[in-house]
Task: inverse folding
């Protein structure tokens, strides 16, 4: 392993009922994924306002991932369907603005999918690390 | 600035093995607002909790961050601890440094760094926490069951058994529903009436149960614990309390040619009628569309013969307003219309019938007295073709059929075939099917008996066309196994029509703000874990209104719904989840966007008068969240452009503070 | 290329005032030059006769004024709606933003509008503009008279007009047109074809000019919040000036997102931008995506319709898939 | 260039004492980190206090310039910055810049005159500086009357100082009133404007008014009825400022900038201003 | 007086740029804009830039200072830096005048050091307006587009650019450029001035007068009923304010970067509804009041405090950019056109 490897900062929004529990399960099963991933618990993926995502990028995040229950399994029946539409539109817009589409992702992870959670995070961190630092949605004032 | 205490748990070596807990506690001391920070072996232990309580008092803490295991594990524990120390229990945040940190990372420096960041995020959040109190609302200890079929009957009986009053609203003049029309039931072949009618009688005799037959729900207001329901009691023109059900009126009624709905129009009834002998309530009803007296004012025979003086031609629709704590939807199903299925000649030939019509033809109380006779010429049919999946699993024909499997057809067709072969062994029975689906206790055995013992001809394939020709139904079908076209001259063709939710379900769902799927089946709160609850709190689902099911499934769901209702009605007060949406009236536009995404119908609008700074007043439409109904998903907060809608406990500011802390 | 003359509008207004249908008239007041007309409410006949104006520069969308004007008084207001205005009109009704009862809407056919701003960038020192059929004569102070084809001076939004059909009115002057099969997404598609680097460079160049005057927001008929998140100190995203290139993006992305599914593509944002930022290309991207992901939807086409962003089906495309589709790759 | 003094650049102040005056008013004592006064000021002037990250806000300096050790600010909780200030603990650093505005003409127009101070609620805060200044240079002024009223006894700011120090001074008369009867209150009850009329002052005084807009309006009317000329009456305006140096445009009313030309105005000067305050 | 052939402009710019940063109007797809000169950039022919030249002295946003907060302690970091010398080329008469208007605000005691710093390091090369536009009305405010002020004034003929140094600073620069410029006589310039003045006489707004407005006229205009009509269509956006060369209102805000606080200043507009909003209330509740404030300030309040100087230079930017075409000309005509004025 390289020592001076670039470490991306990843913010993961996880819904309380499925994905956060999925992340807990990954922990229970001691499935490793990079510590670059920091999880924020939200009641439902539909609580995630596009402003939060942009805020994360502003403050220095290199990637933002939303995790929610699989479509059809939302604790609130329809929340993740709204998430899906909102994020489809938002991500498409970010891509339209030339911001690397690999920096944003939505993944459905159930409470039983600890392995999927870890695998997803490993993959996402790797993808974002390959892109390097987020330059296109950064706020220079927030740089150290 | 809050006074925040941070408590870092070792969890033995679970956390301390990968996270330098002392370093975390030390780092937290420099965070804004943190006035106390410490670590301990097991925070969740009695001693750990006492330590938190003591620190709250000693350092006058008004916010607590516990860095420990997942909040899903011990959030409730630490909330109780906080409450015991005199803090509001929602002034607690958990930094998950076990499941999401020490257990998934291996190296101490990395784990420690991440734990510090997670703790910072929790501190940032808790600095913005506000005390929250769960709302309370009283519970009206009475339930409403909409629909009086077997689902509604069973639910009502179970609720009444627990001692709570129940009202059943049924649109038809009698309860009983589809099951009352059935002959035998699979897979045991016991008689439907024999098992259903005693239950109907139980309902009638149960003091806790009121039946509003010939009635419908026209309005629902309120929310869980307190629904205000308007029930329309359609004018029956017969006084229910006076009528003895003797039937004298029916006999004398000159208007005899009214198609009998109960027998699906295969025979006639009078304008004043009792649907069937075991009807509950056993009370006559005058059909205003056919009654000569009501239509032209000339007749009045029934009134003359009625000894009880129950006939009342001047009766009007009445509206009742009742309050209920819980509502159970049991609106049931109907076979879909066969009119559009030209290929099966349903409209052209009387001898092409649906399975439900066959039930009546085989029923001793049916139009033929239980003898199977063709409707066209009342002859005994010798060749009968059953067509499965008519309108079910029909992806291509969405405009006339359904995409889903109706679930019950395979079994009742096997039942029909078996019964026919049993009673009329000289009859040839063919069943065209796509698949035979028999998951269920004794189902496959039942089906195999039909094939093996009763010699029913099962043909995998679809019927392409049915052509009535000289009193014979020419059935053209394909046999996919032998890969050949079949031509059968049938005397009777029975269509296993798909079933669909009752038409009354859609407007009812709107009234209840309960959600439905695209097929108009009610959606459950969770498909696996809350299958008998609607996402709308206090609304429960029973029977086929939620999806196709057979009788045992319906009855078990009915019981489950009843137990949920009983659980609710047992409570004196409902404690809400305090993490609910809240609309800032000053910023709300009243644009109705949030209402559209609320799965619970928790958002309503009102015109509110605002005093403007220049002392004028302005009336504006603003959103109001019913905290008893809101479940706190937050969909509305993102839909709201102005940010007027926020979610307590997960406020925009709090989440952004977490983002900031993590990205620092 | 006005299909209906000033006199026709004026007479209609006078007639409606006289017969008591309306008490006030929302129209345009003449300006200093032929192109600088100003929206105004006329309270009486004399004011109308004196200053009422209708020419090829009357492009502003009147719908948003209805919110404040109907809130002021119980009096009934006459408003002239171009086809594009009528979409905003409906959208505002969908969002309960004004009282329909207080408004009498007269639909006015529109042959496309010119923009004073655009014209002045083509021609120096304009002293007068007159439109005769499909020709525009521009008198200048120092360069004599110049003649243009009307089409060439049309503002972008009118070149890509989505509809000549009114979707709301109480009365229509002249003939109604049709919903058009416009090329309004061509430019969006052109951008989609670019590489991400090119797109980024394009938008960085455009958005960096933003001076945060808020004209786009303040003119937008979909931006009708009591308090905009960007003005609200409690929202956490309040900002007054783009102190960093991030904030320009934040403002415009969020603004476009907030009007997604509600934007009728009236083009006012780009019309008023003093810095010529093609803001409509952001809104059109959302419209195009909504159409391609969730089926065609035109905000404002009917009152009470449910925007795709507050709706869903169980088989919507996944965000990752959508981004690919957004490229026109699928 | 950095040597040039930038008026917008504050200095660091330390809160060394916090006194709770009323349920929503606290008085903060501020010195520089080395224990000195941040700057000298005159009575009626203001200073911009700020908590970095929260924002700046202008407050009148309530301590008298004659206090050589520290400055004091009595601050009512009513917004973002004040919420934060109220939540502070002793030892907290803040930033401070000033002094801003035109002071009361204590060394010119006021000298040799009888003084009548009339304050309502938190309105006493800006006057406290002048009152203590006049008390300090007692011989420069004539008789001093102080009329002060508040909603309730608990809402009287600086009550202890008023009773223990002001009321005991020779030649100083303190007239307190509260809006509504209270069991533990044996003083006057009633609104300030009426009380002023009841007290019936002679018109040879200079009157200084500070309080809520309605109180000022009615008291001024009362004073005029009693024969006071507007040129004898001073008031200090509510502060809405950003830069404090008459540049940012926020406090511009008519041709005046409240932060520069005010906050102290003679009432006849107010007549020249458009009605926007 | 010196001159240079227009074909040698690139040489000129390169010579200036050697000693200090040079900004000049160049054409962009969004109109003319002051940009730092670099090889290949050519001078715009447009009459004026979309944004005014005030940006150089009073930028849209600027950082004032930083803070570091640790526990209860605050560290103040002065981030001011000495500004580099720079040359502003091609400033029009109106914009040059606007610097005077701004100076009287920012350089009044106590001086704004951020502004002063930049102002002192700037050298202004102005240009007379050969082809004024219909929206120009600088003459109304006594500005002669044929005779702008500035450190160096330039005149452009069909093939030559003439320089006239007006200040010591200007002379010094002109001297430094003597190798690429040549001596010129004033005839050509006089001819050009005459042409310009002739053209100014053709402007539609040439007769707009400031009479009636000015120092001490608050009472005359404040309660005029016409404000209602004039302001009724105003969107409350900041376009006029931000393109205006003399508008100078600002806001000071703190930004938490996550590792420190940046206190910055940014443009603000009195047209914004929250401009005067404070926790205790809002003195200007309606757009009428805010609209009135802007014009009263330019036409009455500012002159009252500044020896009758108006806070408008007639550049016409607001006429060109207002989304609803309401502007100071219409206001002046409406209010000044009264019989009793």
Result:
């Amino acid at each position: 392993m390289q020592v001076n490897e670039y470490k991306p900062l990843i913010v993961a929004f996880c819904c309380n009922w499925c994905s956060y529990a999925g992340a807990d399960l990954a922990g229970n099963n001691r499935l490793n994924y990079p510590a670059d991933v920091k999880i924020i618990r939200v009641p439902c993926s539909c609580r995630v306002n596009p402003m939060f995502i942009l805020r994360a990028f502003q403050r220095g995040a290199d990637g933002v991932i939303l995790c929610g229950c699989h479509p059809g399994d939302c604790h609130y029946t329809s929340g993740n369907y709204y998430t899906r539409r909102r994020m489809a539109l938002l991500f498409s817009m970010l891509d339209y603005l030339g911001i690397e589409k690999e920096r944003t992702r939505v993944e459905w992870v159930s409470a039983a999918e600890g392995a999927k959670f870890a695998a997803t995070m490993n993959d996402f961190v790797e993808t974002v690390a390959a892109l390097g630092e987020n330059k296109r949605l950064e706020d220079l004032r927030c740089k150290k | 600035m809050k006074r925040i205490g941070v408590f870092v748990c070792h969890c033995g070596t679970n956390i301390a093995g990968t996270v330098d807990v002392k370093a975390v506690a030390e780092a937290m001391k420099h965070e804004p607002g943190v006035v106390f920070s410490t670590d301990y072996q097991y925070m969740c232990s009695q001693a750990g909790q006492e330590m938190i309580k003591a620190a709250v008092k000693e350092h006058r803490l008004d916010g607590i961050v516990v860095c420990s295991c997942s909040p899903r594990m011990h959030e409730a524990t630490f909330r109780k601890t906080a409450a015991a120390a005199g803090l509001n229990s929602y002034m607690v945040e958990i930094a998950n440094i076990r499941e999401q940190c020490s257990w998934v990372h291996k190296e101490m420096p990395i784990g420690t760094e991440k734990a510090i960041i997670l703790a910072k995020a929790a501190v940032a959040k808790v600095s913005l926490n506000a005390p929250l109190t769960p709302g309370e609302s009283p519970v009206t200890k009475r339930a409403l069951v909409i629909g009086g079929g077997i689902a509604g009957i069973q639910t009502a009986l179970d609720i009444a058994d627990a001692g709570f009053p129940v009202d059943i609203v049924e649109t038809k003049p009698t309860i009983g529903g589809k099951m009352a029309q059935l002959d035998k039931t699979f897979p045991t072949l016991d008689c439907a009436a024999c098992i259903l009618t005693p239950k109907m009688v139980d309902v009638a005799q149960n003091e806790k149960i009121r039946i509003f037959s010939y009635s419908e729900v026209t309005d629902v207001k309120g929310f869980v614990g307190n629904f205000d329901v308007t029930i329309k009691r359609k004018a029956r023109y017969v006084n229910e309390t006076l009528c003895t059900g003797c039937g004298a009126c029916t006999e004398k009624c000159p208007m005899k040619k009214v198609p009998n709905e109960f027998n699906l129009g295969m025979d006639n009834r009078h304008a004043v009628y009792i649907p069937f002998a075991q009807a509950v309530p056993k009370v006559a009803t005058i059909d205003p569309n056919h009654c000569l007296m009501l239509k032209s004012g000339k007749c009045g025979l029934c009134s003359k013969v009625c000894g009880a003086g129950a006939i009342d031609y001047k009766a009007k629709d009445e509206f009742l307003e009742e309050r209920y704590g819980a509502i159970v939807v049991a609106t049931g199903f109907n076979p879909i219309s066969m009119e559009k299925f030209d290929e099966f000649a349903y409209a052209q030939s009387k001898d092409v019938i649906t399975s439900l019509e066959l039930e009546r033809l085989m029923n001793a109380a049916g139009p033929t007295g239980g003898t199977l006779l063709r409707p066209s010429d009342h002859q005994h049919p010798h060749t009968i073709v059953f067509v499965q999946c008519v309108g079910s699993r029909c992806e291509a024909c969405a405009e006339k059929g359904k995409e889903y499997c109706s679930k019950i057809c395979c079994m009742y067709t096997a039942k029909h075939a078996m019964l026919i072969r049993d009673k009329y062994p000289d009859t040839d029975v063919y069943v065209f099917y796509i698949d035979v689906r028999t998951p269920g206790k004794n189902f496959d055995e039942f089906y195999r008996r039909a094939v093996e013992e009763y010699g029913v001809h099962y043909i995998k394939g679809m019927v392409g066309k049915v052509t009535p020709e000289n009193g014979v139904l020419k059935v053209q079908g394909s046999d996919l196994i032998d890969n050949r076209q079949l031509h059968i001259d049938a005397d009777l063709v029975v269509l296993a029509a798909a079933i669909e939710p009752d038409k009354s379900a859609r407007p009812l769902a709107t009234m209840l703000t309960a959600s439905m799927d695209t097929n108009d089946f009610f959606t459950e709160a969770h498909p696996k874990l809350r299958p008998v609850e609607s996402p709308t709190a206090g609304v429960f689902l029973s029977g086929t209104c939620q999806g196709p099911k057979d009788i045992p499934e319906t009855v078990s769901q009915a019981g489950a719904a009843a137990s949920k209702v009983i659980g609710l009605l047992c409570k004196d007060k409902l404690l809400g989840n305090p993490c609910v949406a809240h609309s800032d009236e000053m910023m709300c536009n009243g644009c109705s966007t949030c209402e559209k995404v609320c799965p619970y119908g928790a958002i309503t609008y009102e015109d509110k008068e605002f005093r403007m700074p220049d002392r004028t007043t302005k009336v504006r439409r603003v959103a109001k969240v019913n905290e008893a109904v809101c479940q706190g998903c937050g969909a509305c907060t993102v839909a709201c452009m102005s940010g007027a809608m926020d979610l307590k406990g997960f406020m925009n500011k709090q989440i952004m503070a977490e983002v900031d802390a993590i990205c620092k | 290329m006005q299909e209906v003359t000033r006199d026709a509008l004026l007479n209609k207004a006078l007639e409606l005032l006289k017969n008591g249908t309306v008490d006030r008239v929302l129209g345009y007041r003449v300006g200093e030059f032929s192109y600088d007309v100003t929206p105004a409410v006329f309270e009486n006949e004399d004011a109308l006769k004196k200053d009422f104006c209708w020419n090829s520069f009357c492009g502003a969308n009147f719908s948003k004024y209805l919110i404040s004007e109907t809130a002021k008084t119980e009096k009934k207001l006459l408003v002239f709606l171009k086809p594009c205005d009528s979409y905003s009109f409906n959208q505002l009704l969908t969002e309960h933003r004004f009282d329909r009862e207080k408004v009498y809407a007269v639909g006015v056919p529109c042959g496309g509008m010119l923009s004073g701003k655009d014209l002045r960038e083509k021609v120096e020192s304009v002293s007068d503009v007159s439109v005769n059929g499909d020709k525009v004569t521009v008198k200048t102070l120092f360069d004599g008279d110049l003649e243009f084809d009307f089409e060439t001076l049309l503002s972008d939004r009118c070149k890509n007009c989505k509809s000549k059909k009114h979707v709301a009115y109480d009365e229509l002057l002249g003939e109604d047109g049709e919903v058009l099969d416009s090329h309004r997404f061509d430019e969006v598609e052109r951008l989609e074809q670019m590489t991400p680097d090119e797109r980024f460079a394009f938008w960085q160049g455009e958005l960096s000019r933003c001076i945060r005057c808020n004209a786009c927001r303040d003119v937008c008929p979909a931006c009708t919040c009591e308090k905009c998140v960007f003005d609200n100190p409690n929202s956490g995203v309040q900002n007054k000036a783009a102190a960093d290139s991030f904030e320009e993006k934040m403002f415009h992305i969020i603004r476009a997102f907030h009007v997604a599914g509600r934007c009728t593509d009236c083009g006012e944002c780009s019309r008023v931008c003093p810095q010529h930022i093609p803001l409509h290309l952001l809104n059109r991207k959302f419209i195009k995506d909504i159409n391609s992901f969730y089926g065609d939807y035109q905000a404002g086409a009917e009152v009470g319709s449910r925007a795709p962003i507050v709706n869903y089906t169980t088989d919507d495309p996944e965000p990752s898939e959508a981004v690919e589709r957004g490229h026109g790759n699928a | 260039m950095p040597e040039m003094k930038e008026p917008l650049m504050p200095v660091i102040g330390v809160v060394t004492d916090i006194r709770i005056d009323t349920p929503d008013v606290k008085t903060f004592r501020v010195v520089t980190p080395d224990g000195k006064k941040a700057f000298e000021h005159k009575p009626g002037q203001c200073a911009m206090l700020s908590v970095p990250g929260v924002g700046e806000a202008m407050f009148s300096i309530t301590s008298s310039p004659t206090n050589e050790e520290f400055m004091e600010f009595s601050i009512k909780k009513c917004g973002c910055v004040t919420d934060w200030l109220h939540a502070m603990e002793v030892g907290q650093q803040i930033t401070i810049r000033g002094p801003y505005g035109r002071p009361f003409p204590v060394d010119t127009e006021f000298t040799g005159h009888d003084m009548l101070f009339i304050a309502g609620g938190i309105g006493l805060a800006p006057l406290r500086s002048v009152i203590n200044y006049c008390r300090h240079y007692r011989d420069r002024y004539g008789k001093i009357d102080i009329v002060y009223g508040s909603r309730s006894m608990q809402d009287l700011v600086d009550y202890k100082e008023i009773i223990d120090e002001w009321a005991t001074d020779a030649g100083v008369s303190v007239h307190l009133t509260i809006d509504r009867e209270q069991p533990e209150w044996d003083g006057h009850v009633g609104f300030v404007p009426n009380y002023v009329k009841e007290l019936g002052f002679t018109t040879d005084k200079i009157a200084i008014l500070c309080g809520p807009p309605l109180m000022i309006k009615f008291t001024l009317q009362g004073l005029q009825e009693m024969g006071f000329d507007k040129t004898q009456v001073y008031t200090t305006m509510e502060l809405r400022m950003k830069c404090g140096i008459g540049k940012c445009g926020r406090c511009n009313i008519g041709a005046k900038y409240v932060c520069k030309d005010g906050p102290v105005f003679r009432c006849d000067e107010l007549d020249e201003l458009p009605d926007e305050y | 007086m010196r001159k240079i052939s227009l074909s040698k402009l690139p040489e000129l710019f390169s010579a200036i740029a050697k000693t200090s940063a040079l900004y000049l109007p160049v054409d962009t797809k969004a109109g003319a804009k002051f940009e730092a000169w670099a090889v290949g950039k050519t001078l715009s022919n447009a009459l004026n830039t979309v944004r005014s030249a005030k940006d150089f002295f009073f930028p849209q946003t600027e950082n004032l200072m930083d803070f570091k907060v640790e526990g209860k302690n605050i560290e103040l970091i002065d981030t001011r830096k000495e500004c580099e010398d720079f040359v502003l080329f091609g400033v029009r008469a109106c914009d040059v005048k606007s610097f005077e208007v701004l100076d009287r605000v920012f350089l009044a005691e106590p001086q704004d050091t951020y502004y002063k710093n930049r102002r002192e390091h700037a050298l202004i090369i102005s240009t007379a307006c050969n082809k004024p536009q219909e929206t120009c009305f600088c003459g109304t405010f006594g500005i002669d587009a044929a005779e702008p002020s500035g450190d160096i004034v330039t005149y452009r003929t069909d093939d030559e650019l003439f320089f006239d140094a007006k200040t010591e600073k200007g002379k010094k620069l002109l001297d430094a450029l003597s190798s690429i410029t040549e001596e010129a006589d004033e005839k050509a310039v006089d001819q050009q001035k005459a042409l310009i003045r002739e053209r100014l006489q053709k402007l539609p707004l040439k007769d707009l007068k400031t009479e009636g407005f000015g120092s001490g006229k608050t009472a005359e205009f404040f309660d005029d009923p016409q404000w209602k009509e004039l302001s009724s269509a105003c969107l409350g956006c900041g376009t006029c304010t931000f393109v205006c060369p003399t508008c100078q209102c600002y806001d000071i805000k703190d930004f938490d970067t996550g590792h420190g606080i940046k206190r910055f200043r940014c443009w603000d507009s009195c047209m914004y509804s929250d401009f005067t909003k404070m926790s205790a209330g809002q003195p200007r509740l309606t757009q009428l009041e805010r609209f009135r404030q802007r014009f009263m300030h330019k036409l009455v309040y500012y002159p009252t405090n500044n020896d009758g100087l108006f806070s408008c230079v007639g550049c016409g930017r607001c006429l060109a950019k207002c989304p609803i075409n309401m502007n100071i000309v219409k206001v002046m005509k409406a209010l000044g056109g009264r019989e009793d004025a």
